Amino acid sequence: xxxxxxxxxxxxxxxxxxxxxxxxxxxxxxxxxxxxxxxxxxxxxxxxxxxxxxxxxxxxxxxxxxxxxxxxxxxxxxxxxxxxxxxxxxxxxxxxxxxxxxxxxxxxxxxxxxxxxxxxxxxxxxxxxxxxxxxxxxxxxxxxxxxxxxxxxxxxxxxxxxxxxxxxxxxxxxxxxxxxxxxxxxxxxxxxxxxxxxxxxxxxxxxxxxxxxxxxxxxxxxxxxxxxxxxxxxxxxxxxxxxxxxxxxxxxxxxxxxxxxxxxxxxxxxxxxxxxxxxxxxxxxxxxxxxxxxxxxxxxxxxxxxxxxxxxxxxxxxxxxxxxxxxxxxxxxxxxxxxxxxxxxxxxxxxxxxxxxxxxxxxxxxxxxxxxxxxxxxxxxxxxxxxxxxxxxxxxxxxxxxxxxxxxxxxxxxxxxxxxxxxxxxxxxxxxxxxxxxxxxxxxxxxxxxxxxxxxxxxxxxxxxxxxxxxxxxxxxxxxxxxxxxxxxxxxxxxxxxxxxxxxxxxxxxxxxxxxxxxxxxxxxxxxxxxxxxxxxxxxxxxxxxxxxxxxxxxxxxxxxxxxxxxxxxxxxxxxxxxxxxxxxxxxxxxxxxxxxxxxxxxxxxxxxxxxxxxxxxxxxxxxxxxxxxxxxxxxxxxxxxxxxxxxxxxxxxxxxxxxxxxxxxxxxxxxxxxxxxxxxxxxxxxxxxxxxxxxxxxxxxxxxxxxxxxxxxxx
Length: 716
Prior knowledge:
39 strands; 25% strand; Glycosyltransferase; 3-stranded antiparallel β-sheet; Beta-galactosidase, Chain A, domain 5; single chain
């Protein structure tokens, strides 16, 4: 056995008889940290692994060089120390050994398992990924899966890299954590990542190119959810390189934050966002779109979606989903933003519409004492997307309360009183205090008639913290503050466990970017009220968790798709949830809080990530009639950065009220509190247009469905 000692870190690498690399790091553990090995597969015999064995290793300075061989190609490897975390970077140069064909190379790290494993792939996998009792089915971990009755439960998952907000995989056990990260693309196509738990061992790894198994979480192709194996085409004498990073350390559930920040800081200068227009143009278009396409004066609603094409609309208009949640996907936050824009721009139509919708929301107090979840045309007040139509949801109720109070504060500046808004908000706050459990939990769902808590699971109720603090600051009632503090204590366990779930009603108890946003809003408000370091620390942790959903790179879109045609940039976009694989605007709901957090901490990382999300959201706001097939001012919600319900590169052809409202809200906040917009325009590849916006003329590489994927694609 060849042993190479590092004279820099006191660690050693040794070649095993099977040709793998055993890694020791005494500062971390007296036992081996784990074993690295490589495997290859051919398209001709995808189930048969081709051996790849390390033959030679040498130390040169602080770097380690090795040579690996297989019947197909030889590999020159180089291991570089980045820090003593330990954090090492490995670069592999792969050279064909005189053969040609379709192949895949996989990198594995395997180690012993101590206790129960947990996982993270940013944006798509958290802990076991699906809490007990969750009604949605999507990829989740189970060491004892039930089989055909739930095929999305498995001890092994492999994904294409573009599903992840950052292509990295993390595993924790009771003692340690381990992570591998990679570039989303390599010279031969799209990369992939995987993890596996088997008996007393855990494994994480990288695929070049990607594999999706045991199921593909995609429903838009004829192959359905069948596993997908891809391969690159290797010509005789051809060579290419790949680079990946490995980290390990003592168990720390927050360790992902420094890893993801390192990747972000390393790559940020080479990756741009691509806003189409400035703040003023975006506000003008979004407000116009809300008023023209979503506002229904007859019912006092901002309907949640409007069709791009009137042919698919209802009532001889563009209305699509004629429902309005009292918050979340429309309702109070969107109406408050439209009202705000109306006041700032002295537009009586917007003021009228905003007030009328907020009056509608205020009238939606259920018999239990808080808000119904949703108004639906022809049905009246309903449960919306809740598991039961008789229920109302904690997040929706809390957010409706919060934004009614924010709208009241706004109107006070203009000398306007709305006693019905105040009465509704106070009833809702009193309801929250009355049902709060002694430990601080508000529950997730309520019976709209009786007020009985219909489910205590998850962290969806934590937004009551923000609503109660808004009520306390408005009226000074100490019991609202005390209830918020009790809730802060209770829901902190979800932040410390790095697993927040339950905010969006349409995915039940699924972890989501909205959960992170709501936690940041609530805990920063607690910190600002109490001025205690603990609450600031929890707000920062919530922000870090939120940012695991935020893209820090630009995914390549297939040629001829609408996202490719319009040079769409994914950097700054938020993945909705592991259940909903699309990019969206929800992070704008905590844009003020993320900006304030960065300023409190004197840390530009948070303000930059906030600004990038705002810039991401300034794409696909229809600038004129027919822009990307929409009407002027329409704003779609779902951008498919990977295959899911629609193929990669698609845009859901519906304008969403909440997206337009969030654009207004974030830009108006910057205008009032910063005095100027933080948006950066006229970057490389952009040209200002005559209307003060920017036509997209980007240099971003598109995904050309390269020969390595197109010609050698095999379904396993």
